[in-house]
Amino acid sequence: MKLVTAIIKPFKLDDVKVALKGIGVEGMTVSEVQGFGRQGGHVETYRGAEYQIDFVPKVRVEAVVADADAERVAQAIVDAARTDKIGDGKVWITAVESLVRIRTGERGDDAV
Amino acid sequence: MDTGNLTWVLVSGALVLFMTPGLAFFYGGMVRSKNVLNMLMMNFWCVLVVPILWVLVGYSLSFSGSGTWLGNFDKAFGRGFDFAGSMEPAVMIFLATFAAITPALISGAVADRMRFAAWAVFVPIWSLLVYVPVTYWVFAPNGFLKDRGSLDFAGGTAIHVNAGIAALAVILVLGKRKGWPTEGAPPHSMPLVMLGTGILWFGWFGFNAGSELAADGVAVQAFINTFLAAAAGGLFWALTERIRDGHFTNLGVASGIVAGLVGITPACGFVTTLSSIAIGAIAGIVCAFAVGLKTKLGYDDALDVIGVHLVGGLVGSILIGFFADPAALGYEAGTGVNPETGLLMAEQGLFFGGGAGLLVEQLLANVMAMVYSFVVTFVIIKVLDATMKIRVSHDVEAEGLDLNEHAETAYNMSERAMGRTN
């Protein structure tokens, strides 16, 4: 099994969700995160004082999938999340050693 | 000068002023968290700009003189008032708060996508070209709609119908939000919506009962009616949702309260207690269905300004033709003039011994106000669109208006590193 993790722009979450459901991904976990990459942060102004906000809001999407599906899932995220502007985020794939579905006790690919 | 009357008008002015921040929270809770500050600013902007405009020329053009179509400049620039011997300066500033909240109502329709600079310019222009003349027709002693005998106690036609139809004209030019209606944009904070609703309800006592411009029996009746119509509106909207959708929802209660308040606004000084409950209930039920029209007809009225204010205002205004019972409220028999203030004319409604004459006048007044408001608002927004662009870019709409239009964000949930750079 593989864990596909993506950091994307928050407003792209709906597009990514639709794309993944469209290729048969049955579940995912999302979290609101903050961070920066090459995009850097943004500036906010309060009573004339400018503040550099380095950590900007992003969304992290995680899905555990079968080995054979991992690249396809990652590509679907890339296609759905791309705006061609700096700050679109990243997708990476990591190996998963073991997986258990808590309700049934199923293990490995059966639990995906 | 009766100091009781004077006191009530001044207190009512403060009450109505509080409604605009209330409206800001009511709307602000309903938008997404990336746009809440923009929504608050659109509303507060109205309180900054419109009262100044009102004192300079708005009031004078809306109430001074004896013409049919528009006032004159006799009371412009704060001059021409008798502070020692007349209620007029108090009434003038009381009405400034009405002028301020009327364009603020439109902000709910344009949520999430209008350039703030365009809103900033739209508000004063709309106030002068639309709010002022319609107010004159409806409220000034010789205004042509009032003169014909149509009734609007506190601003059903002049404020809610007027702002509601103007909202439609604006959004037809502005266009739909990105992703609407397939992508949802649910309220980011229902507690803010409920807080705003409470503030609106509180302030509305000044709006309606204050519009009697006297501390008398009609004011008490308007106060009671305002209270009960809001309750009935919230109750019946919530019941409608329970039967139709399965749950009692906070947003249904909030929307119903506002619908009931809008519905009773034109009628509150002309109907008795039981009628106010009926009007509030009808407004709540009708508006609960009217907010579904936008998806069927395809106009993106983001926070239902049309479904609640236009429809609720029309419902209340037309129901005057059925429920008006000025005889029971102590108006002078035959003439329909309040003996204490001499201000208001009123006929009996269909249910209380009157003919259809009043109903016809109510319909005519609202149609006239709607046609004028829609056409002029459409022209204003078209001109603004051609000269300064009224809509934010796709990127700004996606990332949020708070950061891009105002350089602020509403919620800093974690202690993010914020290095000062100047």
Describe the structure.
- The complex is a heterodimer of chains A (112) and B (422).
- Chain A is an alpha+beta fold and 112 residues long.
- Chain A has one domain: Alpha-Beta Plaits, CATH 3.30.70.
- In chain A, 20% of the residues lie in helices and 37% in strands.
- Chain A is built from two helices and six strands.
- Chain A has a four-stranded antiparallel β-sheet, covered by helices on one side.
- The radius of gyration of chain A is 17 Å and the shape is elongated.
- By secondary structure, chain B is mostly helical.
- Chain B has a single domain, classed as Ammonium transporter fold, CATH 1.10.3430.
- Chain B has 15 helices and one strand, in the order αααααααααααααααβ.
- In chain B, helix 2 packs parallel to helix 4.
- The longest helix of chain B has 32 residues.
- The model of chain B has no long low-confidence stretch (mean pLDDT 93).
- Strand 4 of chain A pairs antiparallel with strand 1 of chain B, so a sheet runs across the interface.
